[in-house]
Amino acid sequence: MAKATSWSKPVTKALRAEGVRVRDIDTAATPGFKGDKKAGEALLADRAEVLSDLQEKLYANGRSGDTRSVLLVLQGMDTAGKGGIVRHVIGSVDPQGVDHAAFGVPTAEERKHHYLWRIRKKLPRGGQIGVFDRSHYEDVLVVRVHDLVAPDVWGKRYDEINKFERKLVDDGTTILKVAMFVSLDEQKKRLQQRLDRPDKYWKFNPGDIDERAFWPQYQEAYQAVLDRTDTEYAPWYVLPCDHKWYARLAVTELLIDALQSIKLDWPPADFDIDEQKKRLAKA
Ligand code: AMP
Ligand code: MG
C-alpha cells in the first residue's frame, strides 16, 4: 500500500499559483509527488475513502442546519480532464452531497442577465460540495480571447469576481480553484482519440480544433486570471494534467485539505439518546 509520505510537500504548496508563468508550466510534471503511476493509483484508492468520510461529515452537518459548504472550481481547456475529475474524484463521494454544475455557452435566457446570474443559481447549499465544470472565469477567458464583450467590460470583471468570491467565503463557502493545463501536443492526442474511438465521439466538438489556434491568447488570458484573482481567501492551484492519475490524486488531496480546514465534528444528537435506546429496546 502506498503511503501518504509519497508526497515530498503538501499538495497545497506544490500547486500554489503564486508566481506561476503559464507559458512555463511543465504539464507532464507531478509536483510534490515522488511516486509513479502505480503508486499514485494505489494512494488514490486510500485517499478517496478519506475524502468520502470527510464529505459525509460535511453533509451530516448540512442536514443539521450548518450552512458551510465547499466549492471546487475546475477551469481548463478542452481535453484537460475536467470531466475525468468529476467522474473519478467527485464520483468517489456520496452523490447526494454534491452540487454539480457545468457551464457552457450561455443560453438566450442567461445572456439577458449579468454573467454571475447563472453562477449564483448553482452555488452549493450548506453541507454540499459544489463542483463547477467551467465557471464565471469563462467570462474573462473565452470572452476575452474572442472579444465577446469590449475590453473595458471584461476588464472590470476580475475585481468583481474577487468581491463576489470574498462574499461567498464570508458566508461560509470554502473555495478552491483549480486551473488544469495540458500541453498542445497532449491535447492533440486526446482530440485524436475522440476521433478514433466511438466511445469518445460524443466529446468531440469540431470547434475545439479551431480553438487550438488561439492557444497563446488563452495562455495570456489564464495568466491574467492567475495574476488578478489568486487571493488568499480563494486560491488558485495550477494543475499539470498530462498525467490523469496525478491530476485525480492531486484534486483528491486538495479537497481533503479544504474539508479538513473546515474542522468538522459529527453533529450532536438532537434527541435524548438514553431515552431513545430504552424505547428501542421495548419496541
Ligand atoms: P464543454 O465544456 O466542452 O461542454 O464546452 C463548453 C463551451 O462553452 C466551451 O467552448 C466554453 O468556452 C463555452 N463557454 C462557457 N462559458 C461561456 C461564456 N460565458 N461565454 C461564451 N462561451 C462560454
Ligand atoms: Mg468540450
Automatic annotation (TrEMBL):
Pfam families assigned: PPK2 (PF03976)
Sorted UniProt keywords: Kinase, Transferase
Claim: Magnesium is one of the keywords in the record: no
Residue ranges annotated for the Polyphosphate kinase-2-related domain, each copy included: 36-261
Matching InterPro entries: P-loop_NTPase, Polyphosphate_phosphotransfera, PPK2-rel_1, PPK2-related
GO biological process: polyphosphate metabolic process
GO molecular function, one term: polyphosphate kinase activity
Protein name, UniProt field: Polyphosphate kinase 2 family protein
Source organism of the structure: Nocardia yunnanensis
Classification of source organism: Bacteria, Bacillati, Actinomycetota, Actinomycetes, Mycobacteriales
